[in-house]
Specification:
Shape: elongated
Structural class: mainly alpha
Strand content: 5-15%
CATH architecture of the largest domain: Up-down Bundle
CATH superfamily of the largest domain: Cation efflux protein transmembrane domain
Number of helices: 8
Number of domains: 2
Order of helices and strands: HHHHHHHEEHE
Radius of gyration: 25 Å
Distance between the termini: 34 Å
Helix content: 55-70%
Length: 297
């Protein structure tokens, strides 16, 4: 399993390559849509650099001040990236509105189409790679970067279509209008990503499918007379935290109860690698054991 920072470095290299292509395309064509795409890619480069820092910090082991680790640092990266996406879109929006009222003729449109098309291919291939890595490594930072890159890819494809339309119709105003539409789409992407980041920061529970996997493990022990309650889960970056109480017959020895807890915890960690499982053993006959039932299955 590769270090998640490896994929961030790939994203940064891809961003640098596309910035060079798009800036050259802008200077050759004068297209505000291409400039908008280049500015958006510049934001992606900055965000990737921040993501690299966040992943480095998140990979640090737990310490006295952070006993649950540093994995939530990833949310700072995705939050900053969301804000930068929105800011870049607002800059594009202002520039596009200005050009709508003073459109100018585009030059070397065939070259612009070629360069932006190459940028789209780079965006799509890098986004695909990052999405796969984000799912495997359960990284919100990689997912945020992949979402950003995929958005850039669609923007670039839109730019290509826009330049083709300008070439076919001769309507230069289509270029800034396209830039305006691109900016609105980028703002939408940034807001959605910011909402997701905020949701994760509020200790969002594990996905329903993963909770069912855990509960199926617990259900398999109920024939032994065991009960489970106070079931809670939360996500912090690439780590999952799972808490619940195990109620066993009171005549069991501490050793037998401990061995059972270890067995269940190991099964859950095997099912959800990278998860932190905490159990609390209680006698099923004691009414006090049911005082903290929490959210039960």
């Amino acid at each position: 399993m590769k270090d998640p920072r490896f994929y961030i470095v790939i994203s940064m290299v891809a961003a640098i390559a596309t910035i060079i292509l798009e800036l050259y395309g802008y200077f050759q064509t004068g297209s505000i849509a291409i400039l908008s795409d280049a500015l958006e890619t510049s934001v992606n480069l900055i965000a990737a650099a921040i993501g690299f820092w966040a992943l480095t910090f998140a990979l640090q082991p737990p310490d006295l001040e952070h006993p649950f680790g540093h994995s939530k640092a990833e949310y700072f990266a995705s939050g900053i990236e969301s804000i930068l996406i929105i800011i870049s879109a607002l800059i594009i929006l202002v520039e596009a509105v200005e050009k709508i009222f003073s459109p100018h003729h585009l030059e070397q449109m065939d070259l612009g189409i070629l360069l932006v098309g190459l940028s789209s291919i780079i965006y799509l291939s890098t986004a695909w790679l990052l999405f796969r890595a984000a799912k495997r490594l359960r990284s919100i930072t990689l997912k945020a970067d992949a979402v950003h890159l995929l958005s850039d890819a669609w923007v670039s494809l839109g730019v290509v279509v826009g330049i083709i339309l300008v070439k076919l119709t001769g309507w230069s105003v289509l270029d800034p209008v396209l830039g305006l539409l691109i900016a609105l789409q980028i703002i939408r992407t940034g807001i959605n990503l910011l909402k997701e980041t905020g949701s994760e920061l509020l200790d969002k529970a594990l996905p329903h499918e993963q909770q069912l996997e855990i509960k199926n493990i617990l259900f398999s022990y109920e024939d032994l007379g065991l009960k489970f309650h106070a079931f809670r889960t939360r996500i912090a970056g690439s780590r999952s935290f799972i808490y619940f109480h195990i109620l066993v017959p009171g005549e069991w020895t501490v050793q037998r109860g401990h061995d059972l807890c270890e067995e269940i915890e190991i099964k859950i960690r095997q099912t959800l690698p990278g998860s932190y499982v905490m159990t609390h053993l209680e006698p099923v006959e004691d009414p006090a054991s049911w005082d903290d039932e929490g959210i039960n299955h």
